[in-house]
Amino acid sequence: MPGRCSATHVRAQLEEWDAVSPPIVWTFEPSVLVGVSALTVAYVWAWRRARRPGMPHPPGLGRLALFAGSMICVLVALVSPVDNLSRDLMVMHMVQHMLLLDLMPVLLILSLTKGLMRPVTKRVMVIEQRAGLLATPAFAVFMYVGMMGLWHIPAMYDYALAHADVHVLEHLCFSTAGFLYWWHLLSPIRGRKHMTGMGTIVYMSITKFFVGILGIVLTFSTHSLYPWYQDHPHYWGLSARVDQNLAGVFMALEQSMIMGVALVYIVVKMLSEGEKRGPKEDQYGRAMANYRAAIAAHRSTHAD
């Protein structure tokens, strides 16, 4: 009887939760606010420094806006109600993950320019050289796909939600993996393992394929894979399974959009760089032709 009463009480509580909207709670986590503030101060200082008269490649206001967007992504993911809702709704947890894994790193890297990176460019190149395999595009794909797969194993996923410190580690893993992955595509400085042409397409296609498998599993699963959400409020009338399906749909749409936009950006950038190299190559060709003509004229004069 006690067990039956307890089960009845749980069902009644879940039905009550179904009828209400989730609470809107801002966390205002001090460590997040301090971190965002420190990064903002550092970036604004570097941005102003790079805009001094005579500095090459000065960053414009657009770069500052991109950086602001990246910090807003952090605040939305970790300070806004999204953070609190992620404990009860998987679709909101997926929103949080995508903000940290894709949108924040993309905007942050795009906010950087050669001028901003100039004071640390050599140091970055040294770190890349010493990192060896860890600095290759292959490892970035492995890291990106691996972190997505690892933290979506039901036992790992639920454990992170149940333990705040582990949840923070999960967020750090996603942010690091995302930054490393997008760095190889969008970095303003050319690294030793710089990808061109088909390399970029293969890089993104492999990632899309493996992450897509996870999206398919979440979207089309006929039962909930995560016990955590089965025992938590089903707000907006969403069952744990439907909530999970929506999370998979959101991930698939976000991945398609971000990868598609990034690919278009990279192609346009490559075409622009090709047009800039064209005149330089023509100048070099003309200079070499003039040089050869001068040498020939000198030899002819010397022979006479």
Key terms for this structure?
mainly alpha; single chain; 13 helices
The structural class is mainly alpha
Q: Profile the largest sheet.
A: none
Measured by DSSP, the beta-strand proportion falls in: under 5%
Rounded to the nearest angstrom, the distance between the terminal CA atoms is 119 Å
Total DSSP helices? 13
Report the uncertain regions.
280-284
Q: Care to count the β-strands?
A: 0
Q: Roughly how much helix do the residues carry, as a percent range?
A: over 70%
Outline type? globular
Mean pLDDT, nearest integer?
84
Based on CA atoms alone, the radius of gyration comes out at 26 Å
Note the run of SSEs as H and E: HHHHHHHHHHHHH
Describe the structure.
The chain has 13 helices and no strands. The chain is globular, with a radius of gyration of 26 Å. The protein starts with a helix and ends with a helix. About 2% of the residues have low confidence.
